[in-house]
Write a structure and sequence with these properties.
The chain is mainly alpha-helical and 403 residues long. The chain has 2 domains: 150 residues, Receptor-associated Protein; 252 residues, Receptor-associated Protein, CATH 1.20.81. 75% of the residues lie in helices and 6% in strands. Strands 2-1-3 form a 3-stranded antiparallel sheet. The radius of gyration is 29 Å and the shape is extended.
Length: 403
């Protein structure tokens, strides 16, 4: 899809509008504008050669989408027409990229499309859960409530991911410090020890000699090291985009020591919270399973949920269909079973989500507390090894001189 900047006249109000849209070609863009009730005056393809820093600075964040969704929900709930609500939100939006998206959505709505159809043209910004909830809200006449549910869902997901990233930030910083200390010692202190031994025509201890060889290799072949790391990183990144690479990565997340149980609870909370939101808005059971399978963002669990969906389609209860699937924690089918008996599946899924969100918060706090002494031990071992490699040969020299 290409991006086009256009200038067009609104056939109903005769006003001139300038905005952007996405289409396969210039003629397709013109046809789309005519369908939306505009007379194209000028259409130009926009170049994709943007400054990468500007693109990153202008990207649409989760916070931007939450603010947009809440503002739109408030205005619609206050009784404003949808088109006027979109124009009002557009005026209050600061993010230029989001402004462009809202302009296209507004033009699509004013051209006779539904809001969900207009959102579905921007799947890079609005995920399937968002679009499904908006569609359900339009059908049930509770669009403002649906948008509020979307915002709540986005906030919970963002808060959970923020806590996980926060728990991982400290160990990453410490590992960088360890790496920096290692490089500093290799390139400054170790060569001095090696020079001292060479002047005295003494044999270096094995550990010190290994460090000297490593420092010499990095000093002379740093360019080769960078090339190997760059090529290795590139091919690893490409492999992780393939089906087998994605499966390997997603399976590793579920089984990695310490963090595996945390990821399982994260995915179960996401599945249950998304399922509750969709079911309470009126989305059908099969559509809910299809959407949550994608929204959970793990291909291994996605296949499990889709297998369960096929069983539900064949007449099996959801609790029975999902219970034997691997990586589905036992509380999920148990609570869904209670919901099936009471006719309140959405409420039970909400309780499951709350349980796992609370457990995840506690586990993140525990890991954050426990990981500090572990990292201190690692830092002490590395620093001790470095100091030993430097002090032991000096100690040997001193003993040799005393003798």
């Amino acid at each position: 899809m290409k991006k086009f900047a256009y200038e067009a006249r609104d056939q109903s109000s005769n006003k001139i509008t300038k905005s952007t849209l996405q289409a396969e070609s210039e003629s397709a863009a013109a046809h789309l504008l005519v369908e939306q009730g505009f007379t194209p005056l000028d259409i130009k393809e926009q170049s994709g050669d943007g400054n990468i820093i500007a693109k990153l600075a202008g990207r649409i964040t989760v916070k931007d989408k939450i603010v947009f969704t809440r503002q739109l929900a408030t205005l619609i709930g206050a009784g404003l027409p949808l088109s006027q609500s979109l124009h009002t939100v557009l005026e209050q939006t600061q993010n230029k990229q989001l402004q462009s998206v809202i302009q296209e959505i507004t033009a699509s709505v004013e051209g006779g499309k539904t809001l969900s159809d207009s959102f579905s043209k921007h799947t890079d910004v609005f995920d399937p859960v968002f679009i499904a909830l908006v569609s359900a809200g339009e059908l049930s006449g509770t669009l403002d409530d649906s948008l509020q549910r979307v915002a709540n869902q986005q906030e919970k997901d963002a808060a959970t991911m923020s806590k996980i990233k926060g728990a991982l930030t400290y160990p990453i910083i410490v590992l960088f410090v360890i790496f920096g200390v290692l490089l500093f010692m290799l390139f400054t202190v170790v060569p001095q020890v090696e020079k001292l031994y060479r002047d005295l025509k003494k044999q270096l201890p094995f550990l010190t000699q290994a460090m000297v060889d490593m420092a010499a290799f990095l000093a002379h072949y740093w360019w080769l090291t960078l090339i190997v790391l760059g090529i290795g990183g590139y091919f690893l990144a490409q492999y992780l985009k393939t089906d087998s690479g994605i499966k390997l990565k997603d399976t590793a997340k579920l089984n990695v020591p310490i963090f595996g149980p945390m990821f399982r609870k994260l995915y179960m909370a996401r599945f249950a919270r998304t399922g509750q939101t969709l079911l309470s808005t009126g989305v059908s059971m099969l559509d809910m399973l299809r959407i949550t399978a994608t929204a959970i963002n793990n291909t291994v669990l996605e296949k499990s949920i889709m297998r369960a969906s096929e069983k539900v389609k064949g007449g099996k209860a959801l609790s029975a269909a999902i219970q034997p699937e691997p990586y589905i924690l036992s509380l999920v089918p148990q609570m869904i079973n209670i919901g099936e008996q009471s006719g309140r599946i959405d409420e039970m899924m909400g309780k499951v989500a709350q349980v796992y969100e609370d457990e995840l918060d506690e586990q993140i706090r525990t890991i954050s507390t426990a990981i500090e002494p572990v990292l201190m031990v690692v830092l002490a071992v590395v620093a001790g090894g470095m100091v030993g490699a430097i002090l032991l040969p000096i100690y040997s020299l001193v003993n040799g001189i005393n003798v």
